[in-house]
Amino acid sequence: MSTLTVPAQVPSAAEDCEQLRKAFSGWGTNEELIISILAHRNAAQRKSIRQTYAETYKEDLLKVLDKELTNDFERVVKLWTLDPAERDAFLANEATKKWTSSNQVLVEIACARSPQELLLARQAYHARFKKSLEEDVAHHTTGDFRKLLVPLVSSYRYDGDEANMTLAKTEAKILHENILKKAYSHEDLIRILATRSKAQINATLNRYKNEFGQDINKDLKADPKDEFLAILRATVKCLTCPEKYFGKVLRLAINKRGTDEDGLTRVVVTRAEVDMQVIKEVFYKRNTVPLDHAIAKDTRGDYEKMLLALTGHRDA
Amino acid sequence: MVDVVVKSFSGFGVDENSLISILGKWDSEEAKNFRKRTTKFFIQDERNFEKWVAEQLDQLKREFLRFQGAIVLWTMHPWERDARLIHDAMSDEPKSYNVLVEIGCTRSSDELLGARRAYHSLYDCSIEEDVASLVIGVEKKLFIALVSSYRYEGPKVHEETAKSEAKTLSTAVKNAAKKHPLEDEDVVRILSIRSKLHLKSVFKHYKEISGDYMEEDVKAYKSLKHTVECLSTPHTYFIKVLEEAINPDANEKVKEGLTRVIVTRADVDMKVIKDEYHTKNGATLIDKIGSIANGNFKDFLLTLLARGG
Fold this sequence. Notes:
By secondary structure, chain A is an all-alpha fold. Chain A has 20 helices and no strands.
């Protein structure tokens, strides 16, 4: 469930634009005003604001934000203002350009989004970067990572709820056999994770647990230092329990000495309108600290205020 | 106009000539409107296309047996059409893998996407899943990759990359005796993710490097050959399909190629296909079909062929 709060009476896009324009004019920028508007508008409203701003002031709102804001605050506001498909395209592109084997952003986009959202991200990618997402992923990744990531970003999974139990049994066996012989990048293993519907995968992994005694992710922890296994575990989690996955990303982002702002920003912005409420609950259960307290403790200024606004903190 | 078609689809006997000229001449907007308005035959699918009501489709096939499936194929939404063609190509014996390659490589990125959507609606699973379970053999990886592609369609091509990829392909082909080219990940990757414009450049460099056209070099590997042909010179491929379909010794499945190519290319590149056919064979496609096909089927095909000049 979303943690975004939108006022009962939403001003028109024209009114919002006028206010934003005021926020940018004069010396410095009125960040509070920006947060009070943008952090409380949903994707459709933000899109309308961007269009109206461009028509009225002949400037792209994003370029203005780029000029007026700085650092983490700028990043969170810009990412938030982008439409979800463009945002995913942007994050994916960034991830390919500075790709390292510990980078899980591509897995998040390929697996935690709905099949339709992934499709829209791929379309946005063409429009913005003049090539396909698959090409960039193939270009910047190597070996087993490429073998897994290209099919993952190319998938268009069936989105129905039905699962075939016989298939679940067969494929649980295939997964287990490959894991036993450490053939983690075997084409059958990858094919199952990259083409099956989420409902089917859930059925298969439940079967796996019943049949072989443990969660597949426990078996995939055979070598804790192996980064490919880490990506496989992330794939499984994003496909089956994204809230837990994102809860963990948040925990690691906030607990590190210093904060991984990129991770924190990314999760808040991409999940605020999706399942942030559930993620908060998962976070609290695991850490006995509410997410907003953790955020408030570790961040400051306008960046902190924006994050708190997006995660539904009352006072923001 | 719509009423005539509805009437004829409802089994009330039909003035075939009217039917042929109405259906054969309508444009995609009229076709879409027809599907949207005749809720008896089509329902709006949640994935944004008008889907044939299954029982009506079966009845129509029987009703229009004389038309050899042409009417049915023609009235379908293109997404449903491609999804069904792919499904049948993999499921019915003998399997016609070339149809899979044909659709994966000659449709635009959005058309292929549409076919994938329709496939979900019709068969409750993704194309990739069915390919993985129904296709046996070395082509599986290539086919999965081809149907999953969403190729960039803009003008940008990186020449240096095209050159180096041509070299990769050429090396893989030279090594074919030791390792089947379709087992080579790079071959599959290049052919399935690169834009068509980029691949044109790759194939051009290939010829410069190896001396021959790639489709000639990989003649022995049918699916690979079809892939290269469909990506570089689709009309050459389609003409071959037509020639084989028109051959009196052709089996039923191969014969279906005639209807399929004419229906699916009528509004795309049929003119080029007709012109090249004429150049290659001396006779025109229209004359050839006029001489081997009969009755309503013939008339319908000829009407489709006449579209777009």
